[in-house]
């Protein structure tokens, strides 16, 4: 039996092309194509589809991918959502990860990589392309690996999982921007992450930041 994949994208030609890619893969088949988040949320509620994975665009009318992902991962925790977007801004990636997305893929993804993403997500529960992995997390630390974080560093990490700028974080913590820069550099080094997105991903995985 093939694994079912639903596609959510407001660009009809692109979503159809992605659907064709999915249908051309061994072990996978398209289980519905929708133009926005509201459509797919409604379809799930009405039990019109039963996907294992949803390929979710980020920017769409009516309901965007961030809100749809948040609703779906909370209401249907067994469904795995992968973001599929042309956007590469840190803030957008962070928002999708916080909403519950298990990976972040580029829309120009090749057939072979799409297959790896789908199979990898089913097996591991998440998937990131190599370039995104390098940018996000450097290397994942084992959950059993002890990382000594100071209380202030943990406070910083929690605030870094928000939309606040580093200057605003400094104000919240009553510290100077330079001190916050030092916290950031120290935490990046300790956790072996390369940027703020990697920090958020680590925080989510290790329970420092709880998804809403």
What do these coordinates show?
This protein has 2 domains: 3-136, Rossmann fold; 151-205, Winged helix-like DNA-binding domain superfamily/Winged helix DNA-binding domain (Arc Repressor Mutant, subunit A), CATH 1.10.10.10. Residues 137-146 have low confidence and may be disordered. The chain has helices at residues 12-23, 37-45, 65-75, 90-99, 111-124, 130-136, 151-160, 166-172, 177-191, 196-205, and strands spanning 3-8, 28-34, 53-56, 80-85, 103-106, 127-128. It is elongated. With 212 residues, the chain is an alpha/beta fold. The protein contains 10 helices and 6 strands. Strands 2-1-3-4-5-6 form a 6-stranded parallel β-sheet, sandwiched between helices. Helix content is 50%, strand content 14%. The two termini are 34 Å apart.
Topology:
Blueprint lengths: L2 E6 L3 H12 L4 E7 L2 H9 L7 E4 L8 H11 L4 E6 L4 H10 L3 E4 L4 H14 L2 E2 L1 H7 L14 H10 L5 H7 L4 H15 L4 H10 L7
Parallel strand pairs: 1-2, 1-3, 3-4, 4-5, 5-6
What's the short version?
The protein contains ten helices and six strands; from the N terminus they run E-H-E-H-E-H-E-H-E-H-E-H-H-H-H-H. About 5% of the residues have low confidence.
């Amino acid at each position: 039996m093939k694994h079912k994949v639903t596609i959510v994208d407001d660009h009809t030609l692109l979503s159809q092309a992605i659907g064709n890619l999915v249908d051309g893969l061994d072990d996978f088949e398209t289980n519905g194509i929708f133009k926005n988040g509201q459509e797919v949320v409604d379809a799930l509620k009405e039990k019109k589809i039963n996907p294992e994975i949803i390929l979710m665009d980020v920017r769409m009318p009516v309901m965007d991918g961030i809100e749809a992902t948040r609703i779906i991962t909370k209401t249907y925790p067994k469904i795995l959502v992968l973001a599929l977007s042309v956007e590469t801004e840190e803030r957008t990636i962070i928002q999708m990860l916080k909403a519950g997305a298990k990976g972040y893929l580029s829309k120009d993804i090749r057939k072979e990589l799409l297959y790896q993403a789908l199979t990898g997500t089913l097996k591991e529960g998440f998937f990131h392309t190599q370039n995104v992995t390098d940018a996000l997390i450097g290397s994942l630390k084992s959950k059993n690996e002890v990382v000594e974080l100071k209380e202030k560093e943990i406070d910083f990490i929690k605030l870094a999982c928000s939309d606040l700028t580093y200057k605003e974080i400094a104000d919240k913590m009553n510290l100077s921007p330079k001190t916050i820069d030092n916290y950031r550099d120290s935490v990046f080094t300790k956790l072996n992450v390369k940027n703020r997105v990697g920090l958020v991903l680590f925080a989510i995985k290790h329970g420092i930041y709880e998804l809403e």
